[in-house]
């Protein structure tokens, strides 16, 4: 096995931005935790994927689209939008940039092969599922019209996720993440060191001061009155980056409080490999929020780009993600091939809609260019072959990392 200096490359990347050292250790531990599961490693090393992909010149020839940048099988999920309806869509845009559509597609296909290896799914099944995704993607692009996947339009493979989010009440999430005082009148965040941990007095003061100003700028300032704040522990690639869970007044204490997620925005890990002109975003948070809003049918509730001091942050509603049916999780897809094929077709539709919806915006290809590209066949076999081969490289890199 060739030594690719994986540990050094990973450490260099993770130390390029300030991270909580204890959470960074937790990230590394999670990447090594299961000796039969390279998928967590794949999720946490988006930067490695693009370091290697950039040398393949043919990947640069596809039409430019707005990509989420870190598309993998677990980066799809359901959420409540501002209209309080539930949608299924791509749900993480931290790495989002303008790049060839094949970059988005090949990362997802690689994730299918890595996930299949994790779950001991046969290579023939994996390839068939990739073909299902590509078939739905190209068919949807050919139609040239974007749609959405909601409560009334989702196929069976998706409807369980949407129905749970529709039924889960805010009080259930509050009981999961907060504790009541002895009189049962006031909530505070639950500090369990798994989902939340304490913050410094300086951090608390920073957030409190900002939320006072932010609240006064809203139509209902009382809604955003801050009750409590803690460090949020979540994610894989971004674990250790400054991130908070906020408990705010909402519609009234204690059972109509709301939980918000406030996350520091940093540069996309794709930035060093982008050769195409990007908009001059006011901040990294503005990049993330702008691309998310143009890519999703309807964005998640309370999505804002904020600036606190010299840094920018993304604010959005914190919604339940504790159940495995709130977002896609890798599984042994060959146990129900019909449903698995339907799932891949749904993902193909969602990604195609995202590319069509954001087409013709600040440098992205127009729909006609996407339709012409989708009609060609050579690139489809090339992306599957690369994904299949690179999934083996992921496995080798993971093994090298685990030896450290």
Summarize the structure.
With 404 residues, the chain is of the alpha+beta class.
Please tell me about this protein's structure.
The protein is of the alpha+beta class and 404 residues long. It has two domains: 6-159 and 329-402, no CATH class; 167-317, no CATH class. The chain is 44% helix and 15% strand. The chain contains 13 helices and 13 strands. The protein has a six-stranded antiparallel sheet, sandwiched between helices. A hairpin with a 6-residue loop joins strand 6 and strand 7. It is globular. Mean pLDDT is 90; it is low at 321-325.
Key features of this structure:
single chain, alpha+beta, 2 domains, three-stranded antiparallel β-sheet, 13 helices, 44% helix, globular
Q: Main sheet?
A: 6 strands, antiparallel
Distance between the termini: 15 Å
The geometry reads as globular
Subunit organisation of the chains: single chain
Count of individual helical segments: 13
Portion of residues in helices? 40-55%
Compute the average pLDDT: 90
Low-confidence stretches: 321-325
- If you compute it from the alpha carbons, what radius of gyration comes out, rounded to the nearest whole angstrom? 21 Å
Number of strands: 13
